[in-house]
């Protein structure tokens, strides 16, 4: 196994009296999709924000990048390392077209200050082609795109910075079947290009479809780290809910198959 | 490894064909009149009306007034009209910038009045050179706008409230400046007066038309060549020529008419010059892109690393600077600044013209040409009703009706875009 591109150990984060994360361990390898699972309020978004530099972690934990310890104190630190984050509210400008959104804040220029639209559009076509994404026209305002297309534009945009780790907070939450498939395809393509992908999702089917590994958080602690291919649905649910006695396991015991609580627990 | 149990993506099947990128769902426009008509119908249904309603409205206004008074479309009347709209037109240009941010500036009238006061007091009471007086007035405008922008952006006070305070406060400063003089007459021969008294000989007008068309053709053809070189969809030569023809129509017609009276007026040229300059800044520069981005979603702009506060402060600065220039034009046309300069219908007219011209009140949508189109519509209505010797009351009611129609069109087209959104894959 290769060294993880990103590794966190013993990370804690307190908000006033709330300990949102305590002693969390987490790592992503290059070319791997890690699902981050947990019930509402488990601390998934907080962990992503710690990694993205939006909420720096409490002192005590260690974050390493390619095996070297680093500090992530601000979003710019994370960006410089090569971590891209796509939050659930996509932050696109509805009135700008696709090219405008892709290069927002990062425009290609020829004269001082004048936009090089041709170059930007060419790069946009190249980028979307490399992701095998096809969009009717790059010059329509993104307001007219479907939810899945908007998600894809948001992801593509983060790739312009050539990140090595991409984190997606519930990218398929609001999408229909076909659009979800489109986004999952894109996630697989990112993995195939050697990027580490962190995927937060409440949708077990999505997780099983694309993730290689699932890390479960429960009440701010690591409650399990499962290789997806060798773990049953029930085991993961048990780790998420924190009990062997939950609706899902009760149901499977009745139907004959057994389910153990957590497996491979750290 | 992961199982690929999800639905295969149908969209992936589309392959780029013959160099140019084509999606089967992309509706192509056939390069023929009927093809363009089809595209036009599609845009109208999609809520992208463009300048069409205003142009139709302008033609209708022309026809109606001409049928009621045959002096309406005379070269003299039309020439006067272009000079009359210049002052408020400059204010409108500034208002458009603010509207693009999704904000509003209620102080443009007062700021133009203040600038008028500064010009007159400096040039007449203190006898400074008129150029210096103009420069000082414009500088005061810039300062005022930066103050508005700072309070709005840095202190988080809604722009509506900041500029409402400005509306009252700067009028107060203006009155204070004028002191006991109700009105100050300025020279009728100096540079200030020349701003609205200068007309260019016919050949200048024609040279400008040729220059504009040549620049347009060269720049469009260069871009289209580059696009085709980069394998991007591009316009055919026929389409470019057709568009150039559409541009030539109003240019040639306008100059021809203006030349039959005294030639192209400097005041109108200044106004159009600012409109064109602002249009280029908005469409072609990084700064313009940032203005649209902040207007579309300030949060997205902030996350993209744009200094949102700086954009906001600068836009309010530009708006008040242009308002001050408008004030100078008002003095030039009246040979005087009075306590009531800029305190009348100017503010309402400037905002109405922007919206009538097609700039959205909802932020992020619109362009600099709205100032020209909207200004022409309101100017034509004013001039026509004056010719018919109608009362101001009628003018206000009609202007209000036109404004309402424009706002309703804006709201409908916004709804059209909303319902058409998310209908893609
Ligand atoms: N800025 C904050 N200030 C105070 N408490 C916070 C803050 N952010 C998160 N928390 C708390 O931290 C805990 C974890 O929240 P988090 O948003 O990470 O959950 P989550 O796993 O993403 O949940 P969900 O699935 O609902 O998105 C919650 O108890 C939440 O109230
Ligand atoms: Mg969350």
From TrEMBL, chain A:
Gene3D superfamilies: P-loop containing nucleotide triphosphate hydrolases (3.40.50.300). InterPro entries: AAA+_ATPase, ABC_carbohydrate_import_ATPase, ABC_transporter-like_ATP-bd, P-loop_NTPase. Keywords: ATP-binding, Nucleotide-binding. Signal peptide: none annotated. One of its GO terms (molecular function) is ATP binding. SUPFAM superfamilies: P-loop containing nucleoside triphosphate hydrolases. Residues 254-266 have a biased composition (Low complexity). Residues 247-266 are annotated as: Disordered. SMART domains: AAA. Pfam families: ABC_tran (PF00005). PROSITE patterns: ABC_TRANSPORTER_2. Residues 6-244 form the ABC transporter domain. This is D-xylose transport system ATP-binding protein.
From TrEMBL, chain B:
Keywords: Cell inner membrane, Cell membrane, Membrane, Sugar transport, Transmembrane, Transmembrane helix, Transport. It is a multi-pass membrane protein. Residues 1-23 are annotated as: Disordered. It comes from the Bacteria. Its main location: membrane. The chain crosses the membrane at residues 49-69, 81-101, 108-126, 132-152, 159-179, 199-219, 240-258, 264-282, 310-331, 343-362, 369-388, 394-412. It is found in: Cell membrane. It comes from Nocardiopsis terrae. InterPro entries: ABC_transp_permease. Part of the binding-protein-dependent transport system for D-xylose. Probably responsible for the translocation of the substrate across the membrane. This is Xylose transport system permease protein XylH.
């Amino acid at each position: 196994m290769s060294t993880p591109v990103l590794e966190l150990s013993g990370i804690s984060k307190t908000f006033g009296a709330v300990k949102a994360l305590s002693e969390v361990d987490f790592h992503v390898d290059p070319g791997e999709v890690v699902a981050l699972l947990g019930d509402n309020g488990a601390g998934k978004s907080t962990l992503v924000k710690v990694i993205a530099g939006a909420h720096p972690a409490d002192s005590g934990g260690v974050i390493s990048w390619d095996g070297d310890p680093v500090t992530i104190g601000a979003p710019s630190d994370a960006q410089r390392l090569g971590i891209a984050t796509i939050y659930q509210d996509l932050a696109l400008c509805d009135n700008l077209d696709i090219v405008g959104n892709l290069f927002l804040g990062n425009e290609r220029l020829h004269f001082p200050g004048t936009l090089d639209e041709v170059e930007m559009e060419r790069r946009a076509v190249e980028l979307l082609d490399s992701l095998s994404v096809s969009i009717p026209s790059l010059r329509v305002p993104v307001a007219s795109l479907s939810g899945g297309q908007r998600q894809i534009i948001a992801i593509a945009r983060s790739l312009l910075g050539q990140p090595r780790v991409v984190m997606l907070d519930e990218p398929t939450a609001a999408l229909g079947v076909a659009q979800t498939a489109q986004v999952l395809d894109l996630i697989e393509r990112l993995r195939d290009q050697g990027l580490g992908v962190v995927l937060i999702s409440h949708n077990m089917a999505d997780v099983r479809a694309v993730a290689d590994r699932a890390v479960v958080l429960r009440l701010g602690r690591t409650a399990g780290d499962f290789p997806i291919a060798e773990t049953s649905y029930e085991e993961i649910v048990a780790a998420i809910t924190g009990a062997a006695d939950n609706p899902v396991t009760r149901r499977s015991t009745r139907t004959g198959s057994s389910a153990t609580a957590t497996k491979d627990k750290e | 490894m992961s199982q690929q149990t999800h639905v295969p993506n149908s969209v992936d099947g589309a392959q780029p064909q013959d160099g140019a990128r084509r999606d089967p769902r992309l509706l192509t426009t056939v390069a023929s009149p009927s093809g363009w008509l089809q595209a036009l119908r599609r845009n109208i249904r999609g809520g992208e009306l463009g300048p069409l309603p205003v142009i139709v409205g302008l033609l209708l206004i022309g026809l109606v007034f001409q049928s009621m008074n045959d002096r309406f479309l005379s070269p003299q009347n039309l020439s006067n009209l272009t000079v009359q709209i210049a002052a408020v037109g400059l204010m409108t240009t500034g208002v458009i910038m603010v509207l693009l941010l999704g904000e509003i500036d209620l102080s443009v009238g007062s700021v133009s009045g203040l600038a008028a006061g500064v010009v007159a007091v400096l040039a007449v009471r203190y006898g400074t050179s008129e150029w210096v007086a103009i420069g000082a007035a414009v500088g005061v405008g810039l300062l005022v706008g930066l103050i508005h922008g700072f309070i709005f952006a840095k202190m988080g006070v809604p722009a509506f409230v900041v500029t409402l305070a400005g509306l009252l406060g700067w009028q107060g400063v203006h009155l204070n400046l004028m002191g006991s003089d109700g009105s100050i007459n300025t020279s009728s021969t100096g540079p200030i007066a020349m701003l609205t008294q200068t007309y260019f000989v016919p050949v200048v007008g024609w040279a400008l038309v040729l220059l504009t068309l040549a620049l347009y053709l060269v720049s469009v053809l260069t871009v289209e060549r580059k696009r085709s070189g980069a394998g991007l969809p591009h316009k055919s030569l026929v389409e470019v020529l057709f568009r150039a023809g559409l541009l030539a129509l109003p240019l040639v017609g306008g100059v021809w008419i203006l030349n039959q009276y005294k030639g192209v007026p400097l005041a109108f040229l200044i106004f159009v010059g600012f409109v064109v300059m602002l249009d280029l800044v908005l469409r072609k520069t990084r700064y313009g892109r940032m203005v649209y981005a902040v207007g579309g979603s300030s949060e997205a702009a902030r996350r993209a690393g744009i200094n949102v506060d700086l954009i906001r402060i600068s836009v309010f600065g530009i708006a008040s600077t242009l308002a001050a220039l408008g004030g100078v034009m008002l003095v030039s046309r009246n040979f005087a600044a009075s306590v009531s300069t800029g305190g009348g219908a100017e503010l309402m007219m400037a905002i109405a013209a922007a919206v009538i011209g097609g700039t959205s009140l909802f932020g992020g949508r619109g362009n600099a040409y709205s100032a020209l189109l909207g200004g022409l519509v309101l100017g034509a209505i004013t001039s026509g009703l004056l010719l018919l010797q109608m009362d101001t009351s009628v003018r206000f009611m009609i202007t209000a009706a036109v404004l309402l129609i424009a706002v309703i069109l804006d709201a409908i087209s916004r709804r059209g875009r909303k319902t058409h959104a998310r209908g893609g894959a």
